[in-house]
Amino acid sequence: MKALLKACGSISKVEMLSPLKSHILANTCVAEASLPYAHYYGQLPLKNAQPNSIFLLVKKFYFLEEILALSLSVEKCLLDKINFASAILDFNGKQIPAVRIKFFPDYDQLQSLQSCLQKEGMEFLTGTDISGNVHARIHKLFVLEEVEPGFYFDQQETNKGYFLHHHRIPVQEFETVLTTIRNNSSCKLFDAVQGKFILDGVVKEFVRVFAEGINLDLMKCIQEQFTKLAEVHKNKKMSAAF
Q1: How much is the pTM?
Q2: Per-residue pLDDT at 222 exceeds 70
Q3: What domain of life does the UniProt record list for this protein's source (predicted)?
């Protein structure tokens, strides 16, 4: 029997955000990811009637356990399948707290959700529009199936897998490694981000892979290339230091 586990952790990624101007409460600020999985689908926004990842900008940072508790309080809004997460957005040299929402049914219900959260004490940020590339740190609950030691499939989101990695590398180097793998390996098209979660009390670094029809062979292909190239970049950096 394959192991199923739940773990708290975070994803670090660059999101292209655009402000929402309709279907929201007055004097609040909401942004939406306009180019999800851009490296996979290209640089044109997907035509989707349902919202993508939505970020409700708030006045204070909420820890993940606070967000999950709030999500239970607003079940009366018929949002039992909505995925809530806590987030920090780096924008124009400032860190802006936000609540990240996925699997939202439609834009028309967004104002209702905000009202429910407001009644529970959430205060929304005003006068701040976010647009463009933003570095986002998203704190969330993962539900994973371990298919082999160090390899996992997401049980809440399709087409996503994870493999453990020993060392986190800087954002620019990470993007360089991914570009090299895409252009010079047999691994098929994919998108990937870095993150970490806590397993058995230990922080584990991972790479999350997105690809339609993802399987273990693809993840192993990417992991092998990633480990090799990350080591090359590490050695170059050490050589430059001398």
Answers
A1: 0.87
A2: yes
A3: Bacteria
